[in-house]
Amino acid sequence: MKIAHHATDDTLTLSLDGELDASSSVSLDTELTKPEVLNYRKVMIDCQRLNYISSAGLGVFISHLQRFQDAGVKLVFFNMQDKVHNVFEILGLDSLMTIVPTQQEATAV
């Protein structure tokens, strides 16, 4: 999986490309653990090219939820493919995390 970064003054966007599984989740966890991530008001996750997410990948996001909330950082997912979105829905994570259809909506959240 590839992770591309784009940052503005208050928003970090991570674009995920490929499959987020046990091996690639380590890279994502490393990115989200960096102290400077908490300097942003919002972290947006572009899932347009995310083809698959495993429980390990979901675990990375879940493990950072409280840290982000405590720091006042909003985590927003957008451009999620139906098969990936279904995984979030089945596990009830769509009620814990902000998932919107488009980048424009993610920016407005």
From TrEMBL:
Domain STAS: 1-109
Record-linked Pfam families: STAS
Molecular-function annotations in GO: anti-sigma factor antagonist activity
InterPro entries per the UniProt record, alphabetical: Anti-sigma_ant, STAS_dom, STAS_dom_sf
UniProt family annotation: Belongs to the anti-sigma-factor antagonist family.
NCBIfam families, per the entry: ant_ant_sig
Name of the protein described by the UniProt record: Anti-sigma factor antagonist
